Amino acid sequence: MTSQDEGGKLFLTKIWKCKSPDCKAWVREEFATEEQKCPMCKGDMLRTMKHLPALVKKVKSRSR
Questions:
Q1: Which of 26, 28, 42, 58 is the Cys-Cys partner for 17 at CB 3.0 to 4.6 Å?
Q2: pLDDT tens, residue by residue, 5-48
Q3: Do residues 50 and 35 make contact, with C-beta atoms less than 8 angstroms apart?
Q4: 3, 9 in Cβ contact below 8 A?
Q5: Residue-wise DSSP of 10-29
Q6: Rg, Å, the chain Cα set
């Protein structure tokens, strides 16, 4: 299922957003660490929400 399959639907998603007004970085909560620091400027981050397309979780097949 892709965002195109969903008709381009956006879902309210929990994120961590950089507090610095000069930095535009953000991370989905599911990819954040416990003591999340900005991946770009290493500043503090704030937990908030953002409308984003759903993620597609792909399972890699194991080669034998």
A1: 26
A2: 555 799 999 999 999 999 999 999 999 988 899 999 999 999 99
A3: no
A4: yes
A5: -EEEEEEEES-TT---EEEG
A6: 15
